[in-house]
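Worked example 2:
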Amino acid sequence: MAFGITRKELKAWKQKADRGEIAFLTHYWIDDRFPGWTSVTKVACSDMKKLVSWGRNYGLKPEWLDCHDRYPHFDLVGQTQYEILKKEGMLKQLSRFRVLDKL
């Protein structure tokens, strides 16, 4: 369940992924496997080859893809989330959810 985003933002993420573009969506998220982290960035694309290639550029393995719904995606959390969003010029997504305060 995504918290802290609007339906408009979710719709835009889905549309971008459907067009075969790499789409980023950061939202509040709590998972016991990642104590202390309160957000996740979902990176999706309908073009699986493109998504896998994008992930490899950041050391992400294809088996880490979440393919349980219509939008295959990587879940970025913690330091990996920060490093990738920094390189992509998207730290604004993390500041919105106060993740930068924890680094």
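Helices lie at 7-18, 48-57, 78-87, 91-96. The longest helix spans residues 7-18.
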